[in-house]
Amino acid sequence: MKKHFNTKAIHEGHEGFDPDSMSVPIYQSVAYPYFDAKEAAAIFSGEKPGYTYGRWDNPTVNVFEKRMASLENAESAIATASGMAAIFLLAHHLLESGDEIVSSNRVYGGTFSLFAVGFKKMGVKVKWVTEPESLNAWESQITKNTKFLFVESPSNPSLFIADIPALAKLAKSKKIPLVVDNTITTPALQVPIDLGADLIVHSTTKYICGNASSLGGIICGSKQYVEGMRKSGMRYLGPTMAPFNAWLNINGLETLGLRMERHCSNAMAVAKFLENHPRVASVNYPGLVSNPYHKMMEKQMKGCSSLMSFELKGTYDDATAFIDSLEFIIHATHLGTCKSIVTHPASTTHSAMGEVEMRKAGITPSLIRFSIGLEDEADLIADIKQGLEHPGKREKKTRVKS
After folding, report:
1. Is the dihedral of CA 153, 113, 344, 212 positive or negative?
2. What angle do CA 124, 130, 134 make, to 5 degrees?
3. CA-based, 20 to 30 A from 25: which of 153, 228, 362, 396?
4. Angle at the Cα of 205 from the Cα atoms of 199 and 208, rounded to 5 degrees
5. Distances from the Cα of 377 to the Cα of 145, 366, 383, angstroms
6. Cβ–Cβ < 8 Å for 171, 103
7. Hey, CA dihedral for 180, 183, 187, 189, is it positive or negative?
8. Does a cis peptide bond (omega within 30 degrees of 0) precede residue 19?
9. What are phi and psi of 386, to 5 degrees?
10. Roughly how many angstroms between the first and final C-alpha of the chain, as a whole number?
11. Cα–Cα distance for residue pair 399/326, rounded to 1 Å
12. Please, where are the H alpha helices in 46-134?
């Protein structure tokens, strides 16, 4: 029987537990006793299914991996301790010293630092595409040493949307994989494998978990890629997802479809409000018809998610004054939760890029990022409205100062 998205998000991978339970059991164990030495050898060699050691595999984590692979229409998946751990594990598997990757420069600040600083230390060169809308710009950076293309789409915080089918075609012509960071949309809104991508990465900390309670990451793709990582880097690097974190992410998946619908509708209402406000210079939200990526979004996505950014008319100080004036929208360096969050990228998440690289990526001193949550639409707009009209420090009644 063919299952659709919400059914898979609730049921997939939950089988073989004895006794069975309504909730996926948490196997809080690092080791699994064997019947005898023969069984141990068979499990370790792969001749017999089973579990070996908590750093490599776990029944609870395995359910989460199966469920995510199913939702992403991938053959396999491997869960990690964080989204950054997922990208590092994937890169470690695909790269050697002297290799190159080609990446859009419209990426999360942590990803930029890993590529620009971490990879450099490992002898890997990153070639940045500063005009990622142009297929020619991508192709011009590819050399014989290029091992994969990397794109975050939609990107954080500029909301660039890549032409994934075109990039996938280019990657295949060069016999290299296309890696897509699908964190912002989740498979509820976009399935990059169906668009031609080879590997998918997520920070499951965001929308997959959905309530800011659990770090996590995942890689989805073919068995050849994913199981290759499980048998190599996963065993000796140890970027393992904890069973309890996997359980929290599994619970998040059960409501993902519903949550993403509400995220999209709330975000659209806020984007329309901001677009018409006199203090706002521009709004980056591809759901708006005026957005340059709107048509691309309609071709590839079922909705636009909750992330948006907007340029305030004014300076760095004007942007921070607006943020400080918000009453219940939380100022934090996070996104994808039920609670709405405001962030100032230039001073927090992307500050390590430096002013020059931030400008190249479209991050200005007066850029503000919103992750719109599941609160009532009228309350969200009212808080933003009063913040725009009366910027300045206000007492935060919902949180206690330390």
Report:
1. positive
2. 115
3. 228
4. 70
5. 49, 24, 10
6. no
7. negative
8. yes
9. -70, -30
10. 54
11. 13
12. 59-71, 83-94, 109-113, 119-121
User: What span, in angstroms and rounded, lies between the C-alpha atoms of 168 and 177?
Assistant: 8
Which two tokens mark 364?
Answer: 């200005």
Strands 217-221 vs 199-203: parallel, antiparallel or unpaired: antiparallel
Write the pLDDT tens digit of every residue in 378-402: 999 999 999 999 877 665 555 545 4
What is the per-residue pLDDT across 318-375, written as a single tens digit (0 to 9) for each? 999 999 999 999 999 899 999 999 999 888 766 767 777 777 767 788 899 999 999 9
Query: CB-hemisphere CA count at 13 Å for 251?
Result: 14
Using DSSP, state whether 383 is helix, strand or coil: helix
Q: Kindly report, residue by residue over 148-181, the tens digit of the pLDDT.
A: 999 999 998 889 999 999 999 999 999 999 999 9
* Distance, CA of 292 to CA of 224 (rounded, Å): 37
Cα 358 to Cα 4, 183, 331, 354: the distances in Å are: 40, 21, 21, 6
| Collapsed DSSP state (helix, strand, coil) of residue 202 | strand
Tell me where in the chain the CATH 3.90.1150.10 domain(s) lie. 257-389
Instruction: Choose the CATH number for 257-389 among 3.40.50.1820, 3.40.50.1000, 3.90.1150.10, 3.40.50.1220.
Output: 3.90.1150.10
Q: Measured between alpha carbons, how far is 163 from 133 in angstroms, rounded to an integer?
A: 8
> Residue 115 in contact with residue 181, Cβ under 8 Å?
no
Q: What is the pTM of this model?
A: 0.92
Rounded to whole angstroms, how far apart are CA atoms 337 and 270? 16
CATH number of 5-253: 3.40.640.10
